[in-house]
Design a protein that fits this description.
Largest sheet: none
Order of helices and strands: H
Structural class: mainly alpha
Oligomer: single chain
Number of helices: 1
Strand content: under 5%
Shape: rod-shaped
Radius of gyration: 43 Å
Amino acid sequence: VDNFTNLADLIVDNFTNLADLIVDNFTNLADLIVDNFTNLVDLIVDNFTNLVDLIVDNFTNLADLIVDNFTNLADLIVDNLQTLRVIFENFAVLSQAVFQTV
């Protein structure tokens, strides 16, 4: 009778331990799943934040380049107009010299 009682106690203890292990494993699994989704959400938020930052930086750089290009274009136009003025002044001087020799 004692052996059967001890066997019954061992069986109950084993099933109790097994149940505890199963609960612990599901609890750990649930914790890992929650942690993974939390990390995934954090990574998604970080990636979108970085993407927005890059988009803003790119548009800022693009705006800077556009302004620089128009500034350079304006400078070139002014330089060309000044060169044309010198050409016309030289042409005027040359024309006067031609008419004076005639």
